[in-house]
Protein backbone atom coordinates (compact mmCIF):
# COMPACT_ATOMS: atom_id res chain seq x y z
CA UNK A 1 0.00 0.00 0.00
CA UNK A 2 2.96 2.33 0.54
CA UNK A 3 4.21 1.64 -2.98
CA UNK A 4 0.73 2.26 -4.39
CA UNK A 5 0.49 5.64 -2.65
CA UNK A 6 -2.41 4.64 -0.39
CA UNK A 7 -0.24 4.99 2.74
CA UNK A 8 2.70 7.28 3.40
CA UNK A 9 5.69 5.67 5.05
CA UNK A 10 8.73 3.52 4.55
CA UNK A 11 9.81 -0.06 5.23
CA UNK A 12 13.11 -1.01 6.89
CA UNK A 13 13.52 -4.68 6.04
CA UNK A 14 16.82 -5.01 7.88
CA UNK A 15 15.43 -3.75 11.20
CA UNK A 16 11.98 -5.22 10.43
CA UNK A 17 10.10 -1.94 11.00
CA UNK A 18 7.41 -0.12 9.06
CA UNK A 19 7.30 3.65 9.58
CA UNK A 20 4.10 5.55 8.83
CA UNK A 21 3.79 9.31 8.38
CA UNK A 22 0.74 11.25 9.54
CA UNK A 23 0.15 13.25 6.36
CA UNK A 24 -2.53 12.23 3.90
CA UNK A 25 -1.63 9.83 1.12
CA UNK A 26 -2.09 11.21 -2.38
CA UNK A 27 -3.27 7.97 -3.93
CA UNK A 28 -0.58 8.27 -6.59
CA UNK A 29 1.82 5.39 -6.98
CA UNK A 30 5.30 6.30 -5.85
CA UNK A 31 4.31 9.48 -4.02
CA UNK A 32 5.96 8.57 -0.69
CA UNK A 33 8.43 11.21 0.48
CA UNK A 34 11.11 8.73 1.52
CA UNK A 35 10.68 6.59 -1.57
CA UNK A 36 13.83 7.72 -3.40
CA UNK A 37 16.10 6.89 -0.46
CA UNK A 38 14.25 3.71 0.42
CA UNK A 39 14.10 2.64 -3.23
CA UNK A 40 17.85 3.11 -3.57
CA UNK A 41 18.50 1.16 -0.36
CA UNK A 42 16.09 -1.59 -1.44
CA UNK A 43 17.80 -1.96 -4.82
CA UNK A 44 21.17 -2.24 -3.05
CA UNK A 45 19.74 -4.76 -0.58
CA UNK A 46 18.23 -6.79 -3.44
CA UNK A 47 21.54 -6.73 -5.31
CA UNK A 48 23.38 -7.93 -2.20
CA UNK A 49 20.89 -10.76 -1.63
CA UNK A 50 21.19 -11.78 -5.27
CA UNK A 51 25.00 -11.76 -5.03
CA UNK A 52 24.99 -13.93 -1.91
CA UNK A 53 22.49 -16.34 -3.51
CA UNK A 54 24.66 -16.67 -6.60
CA UNK A 55 27.74 -17.37 -4.47
CA UNK A 56 25.88 -20.05 -2.49
CA UNK A 57 24.80 -21.65 -5.76
CA UNK A 58 28.39 -21.53 -7.09
CA UNK A 59 29.71 -23.18 -3.93
CA UNK A 60 26.99 -25.83 -4.03
CA UNK A 61 27.78 -26.60 -7.67
CA UNK A 62 31.51 -26.83 -6.92
CA UNK A 63 30.84 -29.20 -4.02
CA UNK A 64 28.58 -31.32 -6.19
CA UNK A 65 31.29 -31.64 -8.85
CA UNK A 66 34.03 -32.43 -6.32
CA UNK A 67 32.02 -34.58 -3.88
CA UNK A 68 28.86 -35.89 -5.59
CA UNK A 69 28.26 -38.63 -3.02
CA UNK A 70 28.50 -36.23 -0.09
CA UNK A 71 26.15 -33.73 -1.70
CA UNK A 72 23.64 -36.43 -2.62
CA UNK A 73 23.57 -37.77 0.95
CA UNK A 74 23.63 -34.37 2.68
CA UNK A 75 21.45 -32.08 0.59
CA UNK A 76 17.91 -33.21 -0.08
CA UNK A 77 15.75 -31.68 -2.77
From TrEMBL:
UniProt-listed InterPro entries: WH-like_DNA-bd_sf
Protein name, as recorded: Uncharacterized protein
Source organism phylogeny: Eukaryota, Fungi, Dikarya, Ascomycota, Pezizomycotina
